Amino acid sequence: MDHEDGGVYLGGRRPLWVEEPVARRRMPDPVRTAAVRAVIIAAVTLIQAMVAFFCAMAGAWFAFPAVLSTVASTVVATWAVLDVWVTRQVWVQRNGVRSQPSSTARRLRRERRQARRAARRARAAQEGPSRVGGAAA
Known about the structure:
Helix content is 64%, strand content 0%. The model has no long low-confidence stretch (mean pLDDT 85). Helix 1 (29-58) runs antiparallel to helix 2 (63-95). The protein is elongated, with a radius of gyration of 34 Å. By secondary structure, the chain is mostly helical.
């Protein structure tokens, strides 16, 4: 049974999942993989930072190793974010926007080409018939 909002109701109940049109195109797979990796690394780094903070507040022996590993993880997280940026730039450079001339540009080029041909024909008509063989009369 169809409903006014376009959803199909099964057995009189609203569907759990309704598909909506996508606002943006999906990221390319290599970029998406790098972004997921960066988010996971950043999340682990934040958890490590919280553990280091709470251990330092509690005066636990684990505070010092936790701080060291948090510093190292921060460097790795920064590297991962840069990897997303570089991967995106490389993908765009290799497979990115394929620009095609617009119909306006195509029309203007066609008009210029026709004008050049007409000018060439007019010059050829003014010079007269060309001599074959290059012999002077």
